Amino acid sequence: MEEVAQKSKLNFRTKFFYGFGSISFGIKNNGFSYFVLFVYSSVLGLPAWMAGLALNLVLVVDAFTDPLVGYYSDRTRSKWGRRHPYMYAAALPVAITYYFLWTPPGGLTDWQLFSYLLVCAIIIRVFITFYEVPSISLGPELTDNYVDRTSLMSFRYFFGWFGGLTTYNLVWFWFGPQNVTETYSDGRYNPAAWSEYGLVAAVLIFIGILVTSLGTHKHIPELIEPPERKHSGLKEVFLEVKETLSANRSYMFLFFSGLLAALAGGIEAALSVYFDMHFWGLNTSEMLTRGLCLYLAPIIAIFAAPMLTDRLGKKKTVMYVWAFQILFAALPFTLRYLDLTQGTSLFPTNDSEYLLITLCIHVVINVSCAIIVFATLASMLMDLVEEIQLKTGRREEGVLFSARSFADKAVSGFGLTFAGVILSLISFPSGTVIREELGGQVPSEVLASLALWYIPICIVAYGSALILVSGYTLTRGKQEENSANPDTKVWKS
Q: Are 396 and 74 in contact (CB under 8 A)?
């Protein structure tokens, strides 16, 4: 069999443009994970259950749109290639609707506001899928180099974190304080603050999508073109998707590993504000300091991830770094739990001058490791593209990434719900009770119970996800052999 050499390594410019658009996805994810429920329930007055219902109903739409966008972006023939028509189409609808999401008209009834939230969320979700799935699917086409794929995903995670962190800090420490009035002593409860956030975020989302789309446009002639095919009905589409997703055991191990990690991540995201405010007792300036320190994490990861994968291989990098990160992430919570229940002094108290610096160091190391792990896992998924192509004859990056994307979103949503169950089980007091009856202090036994639930659940979920990664069998040598196979350069069926 004739062999062809792997593509040369990508230059910084290509990696930069490929990754930059993740600013858009990071902003959208941050908004939906941390802000939407708060704004619609606490600021706009929509009952929390209605806001939660609207956001969960959107996942039903995702169940169909994610695999369909992945499937059709794999098979699109155009002068702009397979991916770019969808990416360009996403920019304006996502940006415009994201602004209106945070600026609903006044005087709406609860059900009208519910419908407004639902429609906006659906449009945003659908069109961000139009961007995210095709854009991430470009990665395996841009390079088949083993280490470069990790570097490429590191750039993607770098910009995703940058976008999310920046808008998070802007909301809590700029838009909120700037919108304090006689009516709103806390500007974060002022609807005007969220309208300002929506405008800035929408502009950044538009710029991010456009920069990546234009910046990678020149590579279109180098990319694989699918054959002309007759139109397939939905039944044929889903059968083909099913065949692709079940074609490789290593992919299935990564898929279910991602589900468990997303579950734990959803729990973490939902409980983070409770730990920050009550477990550690951080004020807004301390939260800002720690938030600014977090910018170091993606910078560390963007260099460390490709270096480690080059020296250790991808599977060992994930196994070693993740094992350390799981235990290290739980360490402060474990030590504080022992302090609360056993009367020890293993961790700085909330009034200690060493608490903030300890938490800053911890979060930078913890998040750096997490980004290394997830960038490497995404790169491992990239490497399976050729492996699966050799079995099916089809080049289906979009299908492979869209399945992971939907599963992660669905399970992380379940993680948010599970976090609510934990809070109910331990009888965590409401904000009103904390302020008016408890003097702003949550009882230590409640905080201990929160940690007792949080620590083992996250260790078990992440630990199980790590164990599943051990089922991944594709080696560097086999990946390089697959990439050199001329059958992976064309669509054969």
A: yes
Residue-level pLDDT at 8: 60
Q: Are residues 31 and 64 in the same domain?
A: yes
* Integer angstrom CA distances of residue 61 from 65, 118, 233, 367, 400: 6, 11, 19, 31, 18
Question: When comparing pLDDT for 23 and 182, which is higher?
Answer: 23
Residues 255 and 188 in one domain: no
Instruction: Band the pLDDT of 1: cuts 50, 70, 90.
Output: very low
| pLDDT at site 3 | 47
Examine the domain organization and report whether 171 and 300 are in the same domain.
no
> For the CA atoms of the chain, what is the radius of gyration?
23
Q: How far is CA 4 from the centre of its chain?
A: 35
Q: Which amino acid is at 260?
A: L
- In-domain check, residue 114: yes
> Residue 280 in contact with residue 359, Cβ under 8 Å?
yes
Residue 452 confidence (pLDDT) above 90: yes
CA angle 23, 12, 161 (to 5 degrees): 25
How confident is the model at residue 2, as a pLDDT?
45
Say if residue 383 is in the same domain as residue 487. Answer: yes
- The whole-model pTM stands at 0.89
pLDDT > 90 fraction of the chain, expressed in percent and rounded: 58
The pLDDT tens digits of the residues spanning 90-105 come to 999 999 999 999 999 9
Question: Are 102 and 249 in the same domain?
Answer: no
Task: Choose among 56, 267, 286, 19: nearest CA to 156.
Answer: 19
pLDDT tens for each residue of 288-300: 889 899 999 999 9
Same domain, 175 and 315: no
| Domain co-membership, 259 together with 162 | no
